[in-house]
Design goal:
This protein is an all-alpha fold. It is 72% helix and 0% strand.
């Protein structure tokens, strides 16, 4: 690992070093800034489907970067879960919003602020109290992504992120088919647009895809064994 790469990993894992400078870093450097950034971004994204897509993309990006950075930072500090590493709190906060969004209509600025605040408090509550099954999940050998890398079960990431894999594959299949055969497999890619053109309402697509994502996540978790 180069010095530049190490510094980048440190910056990502500690959210620009805030995790080392602020008290109660999980809240003040992790979930609170994440909630504020998400709320501010949603002020410029006005429809529910667009907000869901934005949150999903941001979550995937911060999870991927966070897993890479957290592993490097944990090795550097010689600890499995260093306190200053708070990028996981950012991902957790955005996941909270993503899970709730499909069940809500498009929110204006006032209700959106209330929703962001409630989501932040709910996430902090469960993070502190850790009721079942969250407490049991902590017995897993690290986070899902970390387990996949450390335990050499990288395929687990493909299973958990199965919906995103299907979306990406639909684009690859569509482009390859059109280039090679001059025909389209789907009416439009990515896959969710295909169902929209079949006459499904946006809410139908969002909710059913959310259910599929949960099924993939549960399938991935079922491959792990509690210690």
């Amino acid at each position: 690992m180069t010095e530049r790469g190490s510094r980048l990993a440190h910056a990502i894992a500690t959210v620009g070093g805030l995790g080392e400078r602020l008290p109660a870093p999980g809240t003040t450097a992790g979930s609170l800034p994440a909630a504020l950034v998400w709320w501010a971004a949603c002020l410029f994204v006005h429809t529910a489907p667009a907000r869901i897509a934005m949150t999903a993309v941001a979550l995937v990006a911060v999870t991927g970067a966070g897993l890479w950075a957290s592993e490097i930072e944990a090795d550097r500090r010689g600890a499995s879960d260093p306190g200053p590493v708070v990028v996981d709190e950012v991902a957790g906060q955005w996941l909270t919003f993503l899970v709730a969004l499909p069940f809500l209509p498009t929110l204006t600025s006032g209700p959106l602020a209330v929703f962001a605040g409630a989501g932040f408090l709910l996430f902090r509550f469960f993070d502190v109290v850790k009721p079942w099954p969250i407490r049991e999940c902590e017995k897993l050998p690290g986070g899902i992504g970390i387990v996949a890398v450390v335990a050499k079960q990288e395929l687990l990431l493909v299973i958990v992120g199965g919906l995103f894999v299907l979306e990406a594959l639909s684009v690859l299949i569509q482009v390859a088919s059109y280039k090679l055969r001059g025909k389209r497999v789907f009416r439009m890619a990515p896959l969710h647009h295909h169902f929209e053109l079949l006459g499904w309402a946006e809410t139908q697509v969002v909710i059913r895809f959310w259910i599929i994502a949960v099924v993939f996540a549960l399938a991935g978790l079922s491959t792990l064994k509690l210690r």
